[in-house]
Amino acid sequence: MRRLLPSHPLFDPVARERVVSFSRFLWKRFVDDKCFEAAGALSYTTVFALVPLAVAVLGIMSAFPQFGKWSQQITDFIFANFVPSTGRAVQGYLTDAASKAAQLTSAGVIGLIIGGPLVDAFGWRAIFLIQVPLLAIALAMAWRVLPETDRAEQTTFDVLGNVMLGVALLALLIGVERGRSWGWGSAPTIGCFVLAAVASVLFIRVELRVDHPLLPVQYFRTRSFTMPIVVIFFAQFGYMGGFILAPKLLDEIGHESATHISTLLIPRPLTFAIAGAAAGWFMRRLGMRNIAAIGSMLVVVSLMMIAAVTDELNTWVVVGAIALSGLGMGMVQPAIAASVANSVDDRDLGVAGAAQQMSVQVATSLGMNLLDTVQAGLVATSGLAASYASSYHLGALLTLGGVVAAWFVPKGTA
After folding, report:
1. Which comes out higher in pLDDT, residue 61 or 366?
2. How far is CA 403 from the centre of its chain?
3. Reduced to 3 states, what is the DSSP secondary structure of residue 335?
4. SS3 content of the chain, % helix, strand, coil (to 5)
5. If we measure between CA atoms, which residue out of 165, 150, 148, 151 comes closest to residue 213?
6. Mean pLDDT value of segment 356-378
7. Burial bucket for residue 139 (CB in 10 Å: 0-12, 13-18, 19+)
8. What is the pTM for the complete model shown?
9. What is the Cα–Cα distance from 293 to 406, expressed in whole angstroms?
10. DSSP, res 215
């Protein structure tokens, strides 16, 4: 036996050295290729994408007790087909989150369905007034239930940066919103835009000087942070700008009731949730850049579809376009969130998320106000149908900015 042991490959010095060298090489490649970061990004994207679908499906089913027994079967199916076997470790957390959020989703579905009848019966103000007591209850529950977080020591609040950013955004949004009534060439409108530009420059200067900036400007020098935010800005602009015009289009040209319109708009959140569930799969096979480009292009196509049928309105084409836009944004948003989060230090994850959400909210407001303003301003000169067509064409043209920006996003899964 002793004579055989040295001849075994494990005891051969040359073979042992090869094994050690290969192991070192393999570990070095693993670290250099950032496999830990890639695995974390894919896990984040998968779970982030599965939650909307699970919440939507379980929420709708929770409204019908007869379907309750199917919830576990649907959860098992999702994890068996869309998540690797190691994902079973998080199944309990996802199921718990989905089951709790399902109560909110069922309420949201009910709200979407009854919103139309409320408008028909009591006017559009009713959908805002009814939320006052609901929000008061939510505020009281949040104050009592949500846990307090630890405060960072030796950290100062960026008061001046907040003021400058607030002035810039407020002036910009007021100029866009009031430009139609004031006149786009009027002194107040131009003054708002000039003030927004000056405040933006001052905000950047403040952020470069303070010790604890509201938004670390150095991140904007990296493509992996900046370009995804640019993509989501343009995609959200067309997504919400086109969506806000859809109810008016169906009402003024399609002559649909508010109740029917609220039903026709349901496909958008449904396709958004379905696309979100498949985001992890798309990311692994197509990469961040292709996902951003394809999702943004789907929003562009949806806007062009509606613009093409405004003369002789086809309700089902409009509904299909709305569903297509939800599909596009459902692909883009989880991928963008993962990419932005993966491009910053752990301590700045909250800042990165806030920057992305600020971009989304500003794009939402600009898209809604600008396209609505263009449509209303063209009615007198171009006619009702042509005014909608021009607005949707403008939205599609600007959303193409997201498609172009997507090709500057670094390749990779996140």
Report:
1. 366
2. 16
3. helix
4. 85, 0, 15
5. 165
6. 86
7. exposed
8. 0.66
9. 5
10. S
Query: What is the 8-class DSSP label of residue 319?
Result: H
Residue type, position 317, single letter: V
What single letter denotes the amino acid at residue 122?
A: F
With the C-alpha atoms ordered 31, 35, 38, 39, is the resulting torsion angle positive or negative? Answer: negative
The region, left, alpha or beta by phi > 0 then psi within -120 to 50, assigned to residue 15 is alpha
* Long-range Cβ contact pairs of 157-163 (< 8 A, separation 24 or more): 157/212, 158/206, 158/207, 158/210, 158/212, 158/213, 158/214, 160/206, 160/210, 161/203, 161/206, 161/207, 161/210, 161/213, 161/214, 161/215, 162/214
Question: What residues contact 385, with CB distance under 8 A and at least 6 apart?
Answer: 253, 310, 311, 313
289 within 8 A of 381, measured Cβ to Cβ: no
- DSSP H or E run through 6: helix 4-7
Least-confidence region, from 178-187, 234-243, 395-404: 178-187
3-state secondary structure of 198: helix
Place of tokens 């498609």: 403
Q: Which amino acid is at 347?
A: R
Tokens matching residue 62 = 């929770």
- Which three-class secondary structure state does DSSP give residue 285? helix
> Per-residue pLDDT for 5 more than 80?
no
Contact 382, 247 (CB under 8 A): no
Tokens describing residue 166 = 């607030």
Residues 301-352 have pLDDT tens digits of 999 999 999 888 888 899 999 999 988 888 888 878 878 888 887 777 777 8
Q: Which residue has the tokens 């989150």?
A: 97
Taking 90 as the threshold, does the pLDDT of residue 300 lie above it?
A: yes
For residues 74, 76, 81 and 82, what is the CA-based torsion angle, rounded to 10 degrees? Answer: 80
Give the other-Cβ count within 10 Å of 193's Cβ.
16
Amino acid identity, residue 60? I
